[in-house]
Design goal:
Nucleotidyltransferase, domain 5, five-stranded mixed beta sheet, 2 domains, 24 strands
Length: about 500
Amino acid sequence: MLRNAVIGVDIGTSSSKGVLVGLDGTLLRSAVREHTPARPGPGRFEMDASVWWREFTELTQELTAAADATVVAVGVSGMGPCVLLADEHDTPVRPAVLYGVDTRAVSQIERLQDELGAEEIIGRCGSALTTQAAGPKIAWIAEHEPEAYARARRLYMPSSWLVRRLTGAYVLDHHSASQCTPLYDTTAQAWYTPWADRVAPGIELPPLAWSNDSAGTVTEEAARRTNLPAGIPVTTGTIDAWAEALSVDAQRTGDLMLMYGTTMFLIHTVPKPLTSPSLWGTVGALPGTRNLAGGMATSGAVTNWLRDLFGATDHPELLRLAEAAGPGANGLLMLPYFSGERTPVMDPQARGVIAGLTLSHTRGDLYRAALEATGFGVRHNMEVLRSAGGDIRRVVAVGGGTQGPLWTQIVSDITGRPQELRATSIGASYGGALLAGRLVADVSIDDWNPVRRTVTPRPEHTERYEELYALYRRLYPATADVVHALADRQDR
């Protein structure tokens, strides 16, 4: 007898992931397609939208190949905020500009702040203008590629692009819109027309819905391409980090989600709108929720870089060596700003620093320093969250970096905070499946994804990290002038 199931697909920075999940939360199958963003210049990250749709169709065909389950709904998510501009026929006018890892729009940020007012932007939009915001990226395209921009009529992100191809609906979720600063008013929860017309003239901004709403149903044409049943509902979807938070139930007031991935993302659910020039204030993925969020530009990306640099085949051996190195990495300290930094530094010209190197340091020491750098960055973000009025009551971890015990333990030791891990830590694709399940059934997150274990801080290590964290906080201002001068040379 066939069982009913849902599919969740997430389009991420380095891969697209899909899961087939029974309506009881059981993971039936998973599939992955890896990809690499294009880097057409310093500080620029782009991707061809055809990759998103091709990989989606490959994933759904693979997940449904066994024909042992009936798919009854689909959930989507993707990296963001991204800027994909398309013409009236939905033909992209250029590759998509990716989220905060793309730092090209610095001059547009400065100009818009001067024109609109930095305080006015934070007050209306919840966030300062940074490299994370979609608005300046749109302005960059308009200024630097006017011929392409002249053809542009619609704005998409990975999740909304999939929704369009699957259902024909042109729609964006409120949370993604709230990261389109300065186009969206977080108080009114609507596009702010005066600034939208100024920053994105000629663009017909999409109607808005919530991530758990049904955007429409799979068309006959999409069904032929994807092997999905025609007529089943598709969620509106959202940005991947928010789908990850949903997958582990990190959406209650006081919750903080830590997403261990290529980048590190933090989402704190707050009872009322909070703002900070060093964080992102957004509406949540679900109606009635508000968030104060942060994101580090690199985390897993640095460990991947070290793995490749060392010629290692995989991470487990390096993790073993890092554990043997012990707290403090034998006197190494790293700033993890290898792609600039987002929150709370907000410095696209920041760069990675490794301090204290000697000829006796090993691969394990360097790898340990990278894991600790993430922990120090998380603590820095947590402190800024608290200073902005946040009240962190529970920390929930998710993502690929939670699979082994070392990284989460280091972060708990540095922050002094326990972290809850749920049984399934796949992340955004599982969160998308959860939202899809809620379109067709009464789905409980505790039934789907119960708590598996809690990582608790080790007091003796927490004490040792206090001094190292103080040194970490001193390292960035002490090296910023030199690093900025080097960054200028890299951009030439």
